[in-house]
Write a structure and sequence with these properties.
The protein has 200 residues and is α/β, with parallel strands linked by helices. Helix content is 30%, strand content 22%. It has a seven-stranded mixed sheet, with helices on both faces. Strands 2-3 form a two-stranded antiparallel sheet. It is globular, with a radius of gyration of 16 Å.
Length: 200
């Protein structure tokens, strides 16, 4: 799939309840978690959109825009909807968005390339990464063709769970094999952050 069809989207609107504070701003090594993610994807896409509902610090770049959710408290699906609506409201040329969490700092760009190379845009409208038999619902490739359906399910049917909605729509999982350190290790708690520091 051509990268210029895709908008990179970082979902940073979560409340980080288990972490106790905004984990996108937690420091790992010499930078905060969101910059770990941005540094990996910035060279891959023409533009990056961050969806956050509060002020956050990140390394500014002309390719990066920051917006808040159009509708609050809708969870990650609300962030996906907001990114799609931003594309439409601003007449952007993108046909797909690819979503990333802020709490998974160890994935590598080569994983992203493998994922995109294995997707077939003519077969499905939604793809998730799966690694070692675990599906990662925030690492997703979403067609803009899903916008109307997502809008209805969010605003009229009160759908909130990514997994439930994806299964209903029909999602294809792309398996990524790895050995050794888990590139999808995500930081949900302060204990997880301490473990991640040992990886660094």
């Amino acid at each position: 799939m051509e990268h210029n069809k895709i908008l990179g989207v970082v979902l940073a609107g979560g409340k980080s309840l288990r972490f106790g504070r905004d984990k996108s701003q937690a420091i790992l090594g010499n930078k905060n978690l969101i910059n770990h993610v941005l540094d990996k994807i910035l060279i891959k896409f023409d533009e990056i959109l961050i969806v956050a509902n509060h002020k956050i610090k990140f390394n500014k770049n002309d390719k990066i825009d920051l917006i808040s959710d159009y509708y609050k408290d809708l969870g990650p699906l609300g962030g996906i909807y907001s990114a799609m609506k931003w594309i439409k409201d601003n007449n952007k040329p993108y046909e797909w968005i690819i979503s990333f969490p802020t709490d998974t700092p160890f994935f590598e760009a080569k994983i992203l390339d493998e994922f995109l190379n294995k997707t077939n845009e003519k077969e499905k409208k939604l793809f998730f990464i799966k690694s070692n038999n675990k599906r990662h619902n925030i690492f997703g490739l979403w067609s803009l063709d899903l916008f109307k359906s997502l809008e209805k399910d969010l605003l009229e049917n009160n759908e909130r769970k990514v997994e439930t909605w994806a299964n209903k729509i029909g999602v294809e999982t792309i398996n990524i094999n790895f050995e050794g350190q888990d590139p999808f290790f995500n930081i949900n708690t302060t204990d997880d952050l301490e473990k991640a520091k040992k990886y660094i």
